[in-house]
Amino acid sequence: METNGTLYHYSPNGSAIPQVLKWPALFLSYLFHPVFVPLYCIAFLVYVHPSYFTGFSEKEKFYTLLISAVNLLFFPLLTVGLLKALGFISSVFMRSKKDRIIPYIACSIFFFWAYLVFRNQANYPLILPSFIFGIFLSVNAGLIANIYFKISMHTLGMGGWLGLFLVIAFSQTMFITGFLCIVILVCGLVGTSRMALGSHSQKEIYSGFIWGMIGQFIAALFLLA
């Protein structure tokens, strides 16, 4: 539709945004989809942080990332694909609260298993199982919140990323100010994109950020303190 010479995109809830903003918002939504965010964070811990994985060979680092990808990325994607194929969910985009129930439960199981895998191997730094346990807590908070409103899974993931970086900052294991600023900026862009697309209300966006961070703080309190 054209209004005053500007093309508008109408989201499912009826809100309109300039068409030129639709594609950047979609790009950010896919790039920082919650299923990818844990892998970004673990890659940072493995390859960027100066001390957590000191002494690990390149092969061991790769296997760490591979194990994480299988449990935190492949299994969740496979589950959603199977649920859609079997007709248990109406869309792989999980736009309704009902569509999100089984994926939340499945991801909770996968994340807890990944936590146990890394927690029971003494050679891994505790920050890794702590981060994954924090995700597990946030996913369960999202499952409970989903009973009442459609909390944003995107900001739940980004909140976990921000929470991880704050935990690293408080631990003073590296100078992370620059990375922290970048993540805060990305959090703002992702939250704005989700609202611009009409996918969530402000309450759903901010709740995701809050519970994503709280999950990381609780996990760090119990495993790193």
Largest sheet: 3 strands, antiparallel
Q: Could you give the order of the helices and strands? A: EEEHHHHHHHH
Provide mean pLDDT, rounded. 91
Strand % is under 5%
Sheet with most strands: strand arrangement? 1-2-3
Radius of gyration (CA) equals 18 Å
Treating each run of at least 4 consecutive H or I residues as one helix, how many helices? 8
Number of domains: 1
Structural class of the secondary structure composition? mainly alpha
Share of helix among residues?
A: 55-70%
Query: What is the 3D shape?
Result: globular
Q: Spans with pLDDT under 50 lasting ≥5 residues?
A: 1-5
Q: How far is it from the N-terminal to the C-terminal residue, by CA?
A: 56 Å
How many strand units? 3
Write the layout of secondary structure elements.
Blueprint lengths: L1 E2 L2 E5 L5 E3 H13 L5 H12 L9 H28 L11 H23 L7 H19 L7 H19 L5 H20 L5 H22 L2
Antiparallel strand pairs: 1-2, 2-3
Structural key phrases:
225 residues, mainly alpha, 4% strand
Q: How would you summarize what this structure contains?
A:
It contains eight helices and three strands; from the N terminus they run βββαααααααα.
